[in-house]
Amino acid sequence: MNETPEQIHIQEPLPPPRQTFLERHGISPVMFGVLALIVAFFSYEILGSVIAYFLVGETPTPQNVNAFRAVTGVSQFVFLLVPTLLLVRLATFSPLEYLRIRTPDWRTLLIPLVGVYSLQQMLQIYLFVQEKIPVPEEMQSYLEKYKHLIEQAMGVMVGASSIPELLLVIATIALVPAIVEEIHFRGLVQRSFEKGLGKYNGIVLTGIIFGLYHLNPFALVPLAVLGVYLGFLAMRANNLWVSVVAHFVNNTIACVAVYIQQDDDAVVTGSVHSMSVPMLLGTFWFFGVIFLLSTYYFIHITKPGQELPSAQ
């Protein structure tokens, strides 16, 4: 029996799936992560630094420190956060999911605070040991001079003489970098490297780059270790807010320590320069155990199969 034209069903071809900018142009996730770092370097480290130089000068002083703090904070938003948010749209149609921005479980916010504090204590002891590494005499004076300049600039930026000024310092030196740097490094860059290199390779590589980004060779290892830990937190919890909070608390502890005039080389058991070797080893071991226990429990509550609530 012949079918009438009305009875003939013609199957419409399915529309091609939408492709992101990276997919259309064949750009690998690793290459995209590298490009994001290059854009951030030229935008923030070069363009932002040049503008800051003309606005407030080369280095912070007691006379211009508040202006320097304000310019630094605004510069991070304008020259680092904005490019990051624009770039992430090239990689995905779901920016929040890509950046791991979702509602966190309260346990995943609190437990890393123990981890980041204990890690701080261990890294402070590491820095003391690092100072004991011999360097050629011709480099010694140059390194000491460069280290003094860095410490002097940071001392001015972080120093506060009142509670209101301390709150300003925490806002500009702790809160803004915690948000902006985590969105850029753990959100965009690490996520891209994870997709191309695997989760743990992406975490380690991003952590090392995070250490280099701060342009402080004396704190390179501690910053890289902190970056790896923050990357692990964000990946394991599948939530960027976890690393943001840990980053913020890490910076805030440093700001408060300067405010209460605690020695730069102090740990919770005292000044590392006045501690005996057994005391140093015991302190390192004690906080190492705390760090491992907090990390173990964090892994336990974020184990596969235990989905944490996410933003809709």
- What series of H and E elements makes up the topology? HHHHHHHHHHEEH
- Count of domains: 1
Helix share of residues?
over 70%
Which stretches are low in confidence, meaning pLDDT under 50 for 5 or more residues running? 305-312
Mean pLDDT: 88
Order of strands across the main sheet: 1-2
Q: Per the principal axes of the C-alpha atoms, what is the gross shape?
A: globular
* First-last Cα distance: 53 Å
Computed over alpha carbons, the radius of gyration is 24 Å
Largest sheet: 2 strands, antiparallel
Q: State the oligomer.
A: single chain
- Work out the helix count: 11
Percent of sequence in beta strands: under 5%
Number of beta-strand segments:
2
- Overall SS class: mainly alpha
What does this structure look like?
With 312 residues, this protein is mainly α. It has one domain (20-301). It is 72% helix and 1% strand. The protein is built from eleven helices and two strands, in the order ααααααααααββα. It has helices at 21-25, 29-56, 65-91, 95-98, 106-131, 137-158, 163-197, 199-213, 220-237, 240-259, 277-301, and strands spanning 266-267, 270-271. The protein has a two-stranded antiparallel ribbon with strand order 1-2. A hairpin with a 2-residue loop joins strand 1 and strand 2 (270-271). It is globular.
In short:
By secondary structure, the chain is mainly α.
Any descriptors?
mainly alpha, disordered C terminus, two-stranded antiparallel ribbon, 312 residues, globular
